[in-house]
Batch of 2 targets.
Target 1
Amino acid sequence: MSIDLIKSIYYELLSYFVIQKPKYSIEGKCIQCGKCCSQIRANGMRNEKDLKIMQFFFPWYRNFYILKTTDEEVILSCKNLLKNGKCKIYKFRPLVCRNYPNKNFQNKGELIEGCGYKIIKKPFKDYL
Ligand code: SF4
Ligand code: SF4
């Protein structure tokens, strides 16, 4: 298991037990394009084996499959995404989907191009 994957598991677990101060604020609204469900950047993952490990620790990862891999990351897609961009299990979608976009991005806050939301980096004084 790579260090990056261990970090991903650590941050994932942390998000369940530790209340964090948001690093970003979010503006805008969802235009239900489905882009964020079709291309999900999986930090720390490199291959199918890593996905299986994440699925073991966090069962909601079983909704996802590997769409493509690059030298640096894995891009996942969701099995529940319908052709019209809607979610097949919308009422029962995982918490991670309900909370998207998360204000506590571990990496630099980025959204997929065309998303109806906008991420605003919080100024230093707002952390105090
Ligand atoms: S479960 Fe629904 S909301 Fe969550 S990624 Fe899949 S299609 Fe999108
Ligand atoms: S990419 Fe943005 S606008 Fe499109 S479905 Fe996801 S959250 Fe909504």
Note: Helices lie at 3-17, 35-38, 48-57, 95-98.
Target 2
Amino acid sequence: MAKSLFVCQICGAEHRKWAGQCPDCREWNSMTEQVIESTIRVGKASKSMATTAIPDIAMHKTERRSTGINELNRVLGGGLLSGFAIIRA
Ligand SMILES: [Zn+2]
């Protein structure tokens, strides 16, 4: 989130609020607004990441192997997938 800071061009004093006269050096109309960017750049990081369209993943055909137990096949969504692991707690 960006926030504004007002910096006096004469003495370099920084203030949260704009003032017609710098409270430090008493110069008039010397304060200019500066936008301070947040150090966390979420937008840039996410843009550089590789993306895969959801249909490419969801529509990928997978072969299911029957477990030999109909009830278990049904629970697994049709059988075991290659590389599939079941962790029993
Ligand atoms: Zn000043």
Note: Residues 5 and 34 are 5 Å apart (CA to CA).
